[in-house]
Write a structure and sequence with these properties.
Rossmann fold; eight-stranded mixed sheet; six-stranded parallel sheet
Amino acid sequence: MRVVLVTAGEPLPTDRADIRLHRTGQFAAWLAARGHEVDWVTNRFDHFQKQQRPTAGVLHLAPNYRIHLLESRGYRRNISIERFLDHADLGRDFHARASQLGRADVMLASMPTIELAAESVRWAQSVGAASLVDIRDLWPDIMIERAPVGARWLARLALSKLSSTLALALRGADGIIAQNEPFVHWGLAHAKRAAGPLDVVIPLGYGLRPLAEADRAAALQFWRGQGLDLGENAPPVMAFAGSVSSQFDFAPVLAAGNQLRSRGVRTVICGIGERIGELTSAAKPRSDLLLPGWCSYAQLRVLLERATIGLLPYKDSLNFQNAVPNKAGEYLAHGLPLAWSLGTGPLAALIAKHNVGCSYRKNGTQLAAAVTALLDSPANATAAHDAARALFHAEFDADTVHQRLLDHLTLATKRHAAAA
């Protein structure tokens, strides 16, 4: 098939030699490796580095795999007027350049951004392609939620145009995909229509890559240079890997680290972002808190393979109450039990059902107690690690998830053609 993927804000395979790709990046490479024609439309602005990528236009990664870089102004903060303007830029540039894409069998657009999703659906309709929208975050509702209670009516009014644009995009698409049922229902509510056969849940997958022994040795040396020996006598580690942004609440994690210091537990927070300054200040008087910055795939892999628990310290918001973040699949792939900050939602239920960690309810003492229980019972720790790997292979393995995505795109293409 000829597949057009539209997703902004993900890492690109050309960003760095050892980059960790997200849902679209992994799926695009997987499709191209199986002979499909793939065009990935994304932004030139690097969401993580907060800078424009040095290249522009179209990147040709393979004869059947191209990345189209849209132009936009960029932004310094994730929650800002600049970012809203940046997203509007992306929609306008896609509209101006969409004719370069030619024709396609099917288009899969991520939401956000709203503007790109809307323009993508409009373009798919114009060329006779099937169209699906993959809901990643609940924009613009999460912006309304962040406004002061007394001012939410004003935020709702200010964002009403975006809400209308979203509704049109979701109504115009052939189907809605999301990582969980509440997100699908949210999309259907905005579209003001009943569920159909193309509205489905497909989780966020993760793929383990081969790791050469030389790269493993170099990664272990990196951690020794950071003051963390991950050999046979590695200390207990609470690990976090991701963007250090305002969507996370690290205060309970730091509190738990304080309580666990006497057990030799190290807290390792990998990544960069707008919260790194305050974490750096918190780390100065603490030998148990390690902030290595951005880490390569090899460096993260050896850390997560030897860690005790994987941290998911999300804030309690509409966007995360029903989420199963891609970090969950990444941690599980390495056999790592999960520490989920919220006490409810599908991830809390998954953790409880499969005994793969804890939901610490934003409470550092509960997180410390869960880690202590793993340290005090090696048998229980081994069982949790084994259960984590089993759950990953059952539900989050990238090959399985990508095949489900491809099957769904194929079904959407056939149903769209039959209805034409």
